[in-house]
Specification:
The chain is α+β, with helices and mostly antiparallel strands. Helices cover 27% and strands 24% of the residues. The protein has one domain. The radius of gyration is 18 Å and the shape is elongated. The chain starts with a strand and ends in a 12-residue tail after the last helix.
Length: 74
Amino acid sequence: MVPIYIATKCIQKRKHRKKRINKKWQKRYGYYEINYMPHNEVITMDDGTILMTKRTFEKLKSNWIDIPLIKKEE
């Protein structure tokens, strides 16, 4: 199984300069979820992890064909 990470970043909707009030604003106003990668782009890392946006993941998932996994002989 290859780990897949969805490349999104959460940015607070409204910020306050005071930390105590900013924590309350986080709860009240929430976050935006922003893609920081272009759509339809997939990055594979050396350790086998895959980075992609949520839209790309959904597109690949809808076109997914179940391929039986080959077990390693020990």
